Amino acid sequence: MLHILWFLLLAGGVVYGAVHGRIDEVTQAVFSGAQSGVMICFGLLSVLVFWLGMMRIAQEGGIVRALARVCSPLVCRLFPSVPRGDPAIGYIVTNVCANVLGLGNAATPAGMKAMEELQKRNRSPNEATPAMCTLLAINTASLTLIPTTMIGLRMQAGSQSPTDIIVPTIVATACSLLFALLIDRWAQKSAP
Amino acid sequence: MIGTITAFVIPVWIVLILCVGLMRNVPLVTSFVAGAQEGFGLTVRMLPHVVAMMVAIAVFRASGALDALVGIAAPWLDPMGIPAQVVPMGLLRTMTGAGSIAYAGDVIAQYGPDALWSRMVATIQGSTDTTLYVIAVYFGAIGVTKTRYALPVGLAADAVGFVAAVWACRVFS
Predict the structure, then answer these.
(1) Nearest one of B71, B107, B75, B116 to B91, comparing CA atoms
(2) pLDDT tens, A30-85?
(3) pLDDT grade, residue B4 (50/70/90)?
(4) Residue A121 to residue A136: CA distance in whole angstroms
(5) What is the DSSP string of A61-94?
(6) What is the greatest pairwise CA distance in chain A?
(7) Chain B: nearest CA to A105, how far in angstroms?
(8) B95: distance to nearest CA of chain A, Å?
(9) Which of A2, A29, A158 sits opposite B59 (nearest CB)?
(10) What is the pLDDT of residue B1?
(11) A8 to chain B nearest CA, in Å?
């Protein structure tokens, strides 16, 4: 599925660009796209190095395990394949909390640690497990309470009430999260 | 008020981790360095996945194919109460975070920050995440190449979030 989408975007883009006389822009986009990919990763590097360091302290100090123990009853309903008290639960909770609070740069490292923990239980390591798909669904739905970037952008533009997008944002994000979890559960059951 | 609370979350979290670590006799710097070292490996592992996605998305946008897709989709979405001005936002949001923020900025600059369309694009930006990027980063970092149903689930959730954001802006205004 990902391979087909990639093919469609790339090959479709090249063919469409060629037909409509934009082949120079397309060639340029190949390299600017590659460059922005590298820039994004190296932008994330500092954040990953710092937070993975902090999270190692949290793990050795027992915070991750404590979080996992406290939140297991609730979180394990969403991740039935993960045993209670597994460190993955601790990282999942950290990831979700950071997302909710709008701390995107702390959310990604926690999500990655969660994925690593889930990977340890994966019998075919190049294939996603149902628990990984659920965690991904939660992250793509992006549970946000305060859309800080957009409030800032509207404030800069001189909005009368920049915060009036908070309620619609919470409603929309709740809808997409709920739907993501439902369809993820359905896909899990109907997948071979 | 809310801004102040969020501003304190990260510092408090850092101090909490450090205090608990100190109480439990964790060798703070040694542990930090050991964990931080993983950061580089993760970045190197996910980089090819992110580059692959970014190239495909950049080509698709630069070729004009995205605009063509918007042109096709807009008349179908109009009867659902989704104005043509916010349709590009829905497509961009799934593909590129920076691209969708830029588009939202354009709409806000053009129509004013309090216009219905501006509130719609801002809500779309805030209520979903960049599915293609999230998949590339998380699955790339752990070396998962068979993503199974994760992509269609993410895209479907994006579509629902998009429509919900537009309708929520109509209801709460």
Answers:
(1) B71
(2) 999 999 889 888 888 888 899 999 999 999 999 988 988 888 888 899 999 999 88
(3) low
(4) 17
(5) TTHHHHHHHHHHHHHHHH-TTSPTT-HHHHHHHH
(6) 60
(7) 10
(8) 10
(9) A29
(10) 55
(11) 9
Q: Which tokens is B155 given?
A: 């895209």
Residue A42's contacts (CB-CB under 8 Å, 6 or more residues apart) are B43
Enumerate the domain spans of chain B.
44-171
Q: Tell if the CB–CB gap between B112 and A53 is shorter than 8 Å.
A: no
Residue A118 CA to residue A114 CA, distance in Å, equals 6
* Chain A, window 94-153: residues with a beta carbon less than 8 angstroms from a chain B beta carbon: 101-103, 106, 108-109, 111-112, 115-116, 119, 125-128, 132-133, 135-137, 139-142, 144, 146-151, 153
| Sequence spans of domains, chain A | 39-190
**DSSP per-residue letters across B11-52:** HHHHHHHHHHHHHTT--HHHHHHHHHHHHHHHHHHHHHHHHH
Q: Is the ipTM of this complex over 0.85?
A: yes
Scored b (16 or more CB within 10 A) or e, A130-141 reads bbbbbbbbbbbb
Cβ pair B162, B95 in contact under 8 A? no
Stretch B75-85: mean pLDDT = 91
What contacts B122, CB < 8 A, 6 or more positions away?
A147, A150, A151, A153, A154, A165, A169, B104, B108
